[in-house]
């Protein structure tokens, strides 16, 4: 009888080579392994004295069965069982319990123990040997009724026994999992992987089986499979069977349906990618807004936008389109990037495209989104096919507008999907509004700085113009006294009305839909001034079209508007834009006007000439005495005392002087 070294306390060898089955004993302060090794000469026996040493050995070498005491140093047999089951779910495990171990046995069964025995029953070793023999043969799918089969009555997964040649030896399916198998059990058992799957897929599965047998550990892989319920994703967990089937090594292959988990992961990945895209879009928009300050013209603004969006890598092609008033098909104003001549092809289609996304965006002032070229009705089939041939996946047309004026569109095309989510669309919509604002600001700046301009005179006869109705019915004269921008794109119109009473006008104004608010500012013997908040008017429309309104007069039932645009402006577009909103209007005058330049000295001299000596003296004294500082350096009484005048007289001179200066600044 061969001897066995046990722990650190004997000089016996730590393993005895007997036959082809290996049993690992984990015991502390007992001598069961030594006794068992002497009683059985047909097994290889290993001994470890703690749970941690057991797990280390399992990592280094496979065993056929573990026999463990419940009482172990720094742990117990239940904890060891749970650790083993995490990585070796099919490894036979026999638990030896001490006195009063019924509770331990119950927990061990719940944790997946193969068998359990009270320590008092193993003196003769026959019971222990019978238990080990049974769990090796039956638990691993040997002779008799397989314990795995019993488990599959509640098993949520599909399990297979496959040998090292890829032959199905057994298919283990529970009552609710048969529709997750690629074929019925009768069609699989006895067949090879290459009989069931395409060659590449079968080779991949067979390689995984060989890797499992080589490592002797659990191996995992994920794969899609077409089953009765359609395409599903599975996670395979494979482990060596530990016993031969028909003379060949085999593995247990457990396939868990992870389709729902994959969908969740895919959704999270998509959300993460969308967030990254959104952050990138916001970064580009911030850079663009910063650079718009230096763009002098509309062409500069639009070219800058197109180039920055293409440089970002999100879109391969960007262009701005002309406004719908003068548009005939795709007519790019500026462009950047390119996808195999795709934009030139769109231009060649001309009006055959009909209501293309850019045209729809301008007419509706709403985003037009194509998230998938394969599934859209926004483009004719021929254009869709051209897009697919060029690798185009998605696109968007963004209206460029300010107020109620649509200047055109910005169109973006991408060979990627997922760059046009809801939040990305909202950011791009904001970009369209920002571009419209910048274009309008550039036009106004150009008008102010230009030394020449084109003056346009319109006559309007439109029943929607409320002051036209007032002039006709009350036989009075109305003219624009001043304009101030208000919130939400509205304008404060200061209108002077002569020849009628405020009461009659306010009664008519209260019923007008265009006027949201009205307030009497001042009145005199000749007339009065109204402050009105107007959502829409002829004056507002001309401003949005890019013109600076010089005057607006309503007299004898007719509206006359005079406006200026920079000399290099496309006058036809301004006129078309205005007349598209007011079809009854007529352009009755067009002339070039020149503005004289004025030096700073001449400007100051012109202001001085508007003031009387007393007004200038009062203004200068108050300024240098710190009256306009905060906190004030001098009070009104102190300034008046310096001039030897009363406070009311000082205030009178100051108000007159300030009014003259403000008139020169605002009216001039």
Structure, briefly:
The protein is an alpha+beta fold. Helix content is 40%, strand content 25%. The strands form five sheets. It has an eight-stranded antiparallel sheet with strand order 21-22-20-19-23-24-18-25. The chain has a five-stranded parallel sheet with strand order 2-1-3-6-7, sandwiched between helices.
Blueprint of the fold:
Blueprint: E1 22-26, H1 32-39, E2 44-48, H2 51-60, E3 65-69, E4 71-72, E5 75-76, H3 77-87, E6 93-97, H4 102-110, E7 115-118, H5 126-139, H6 147-151, E8 158-163, E9 168-173, H7 185-188, H8 193-196, H9 199-215, E10 219-227, E11 230-240, E12 250-257, H10 259-292, H11 298-311, E13 317-321, E14 332-337, H12 342-349, H13 357-364, E15 368-370, H14 381-389, E16 394-402, E17 405-414, H15 422-449, E18 452-460, H16 466-474, E19 477-485, E20 491-498, H17 502-509, E21 515-523, E22 527-534, H18 538-544, E23 548-555, E24 558-566, H19 571-581, E25 586-594, H20 600-609, H21 613-624, H22 636-643, H23 647-666
Parallel strand pairs: 1-2, 1-3, 3-6, 6-7
Antiparallel strand pairs: 4-5, 8-9, 8-12, 10-11, 11-12, 13-14, 13-17, 15-16, 16-17, 18-24, 18-25, 19-20, 19-23, 20-22, 21-22, 23-24
């Amino acid at each position: 009888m061969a001897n066995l070294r046990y722990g650190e306390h004997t000089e016996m060898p730590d393993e005895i080579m007997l036959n082809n089955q290996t049993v690992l004993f984990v015991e502390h302060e007992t001598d069961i392994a030594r006794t068992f090794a002497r009683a059985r000469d047909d097994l290889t026996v290993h001994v470890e004295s703690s749970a941690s040493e057991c797990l280390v050995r399992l990592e280094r070498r496979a065993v056929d069965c573990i026999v463990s005491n419940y009482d172990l140093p720094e742990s117990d047999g239940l904890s060891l069982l749970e650790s083993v089951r995490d990585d070796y779910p099919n490894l036979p495990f026999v638990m030896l319990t001490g006195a009063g171990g019924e509770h331990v046995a119950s927990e061990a069964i719940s944790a997946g123990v193969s068998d359990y025995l009270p320590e008092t029953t193993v003196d003769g070793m026959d019971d222990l040997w019978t238990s080990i023999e049974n769990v090796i043969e039956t638990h691993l799918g040997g002779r008799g009724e397989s314990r795995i089969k019993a488990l599959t009555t509640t098993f949520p997964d599909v399990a297979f026994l496959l040998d090292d040649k890829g032959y199905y030896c057994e298919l283990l399916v529970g009552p609710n999992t048969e529709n997750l198998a690629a074929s019925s059990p009768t069609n699989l058992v006895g067949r090879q992987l290459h009989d069931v799957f395409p060659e590449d897929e079968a080779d991949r599965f067979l390689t995984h089986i060989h890797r499992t047998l080589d490592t002797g550990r659990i191996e995992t892989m994920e794969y899609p499979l077409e089953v009765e319920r359609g395409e599903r994703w599975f996670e395979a967990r494979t482990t060596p069977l530990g016993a031969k089937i028909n003379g060949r090594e085999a593995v247990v292959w457990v396939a868990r349906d992870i389709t729902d988990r994959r969908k969740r992961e895919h959704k999270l990945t998509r959300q993460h990618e969308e967030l990254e895209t959104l952050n990138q879009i916001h970064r580009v928009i911030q850079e663009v807004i910063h650079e718009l300050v230096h763009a002098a013209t509309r062409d500069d603004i639009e070219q800058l936008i197109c180039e920055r969006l293409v440089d970002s890598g999100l879109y391969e092609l960007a262009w701005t389109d002309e406004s719908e008033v003068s548009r005939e098909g795709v007519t790019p104003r500026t462009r950047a990037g390119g996808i195999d001549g795709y934009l030139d092809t769109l231009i060649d289609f001309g009006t055959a495209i009909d209501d293309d996304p850019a045209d729809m965006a301008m007419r509706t002032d709403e985003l037009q989104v194509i998230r998938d070229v394969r599934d859209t009705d926004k483009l004719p089939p021929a254009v869709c096919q051209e897009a697919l041939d060029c690798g185009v996946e998605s696109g968007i047309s963004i209206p460029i507008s300010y107020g109620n004026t649509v200047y055109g569109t910005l169109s973006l095309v991408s060979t990627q999907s997922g760059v046009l989510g809801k939040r990305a669309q909202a950011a791009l919509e904001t970009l369209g509004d920002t571009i419209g604002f910048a274009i309008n600001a550039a036009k106004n700046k150009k008008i102010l700085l230009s030394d020449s301009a084109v003056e346009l005179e319109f006559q309007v006869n439109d029943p929607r113009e409320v002051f036209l109705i007032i002039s006709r019915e009350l036989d009075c004269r109305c003219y624009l006294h001043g304009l101030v921008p208000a919130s939400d794109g509205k304008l404060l119109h200061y209108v002077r009305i002569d020849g009628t009473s405020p009461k009659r006008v306010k009664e008519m104004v209260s019923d007008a839909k265009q006027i949201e608010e009205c307030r009497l500012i001042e009145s005199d013997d000749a007339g009065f001034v109204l402050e009105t908040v107007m959502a829409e008017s002829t004056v507002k429309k001309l401003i949005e079209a890019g013109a600076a309104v010089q005057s607006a007069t309503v007299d004898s039932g007719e509206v006359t508007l005079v406006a200026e645009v920079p000399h290099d402006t496309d006058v036809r577009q301004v006129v078309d834009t205005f007349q598209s909103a007011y079809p009854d209007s007529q352009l009755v005058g067009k002339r070039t006007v020149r503005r004289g330049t004025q030096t700073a000295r001449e400007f100051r001299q012109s202001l001085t000439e508007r003031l009387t000596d007393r007004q200038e003296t009062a203004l200068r004294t108050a300024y240098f005495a710190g009256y306009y500082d905060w906190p004030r350096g001098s009070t009104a009484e102190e300034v008046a005392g310096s001039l030897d005048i009363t406070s009311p007289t000082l205030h009178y001179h100051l108000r007159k002087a300030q009014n003259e200066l403000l008139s020169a600044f605002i009216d001039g």
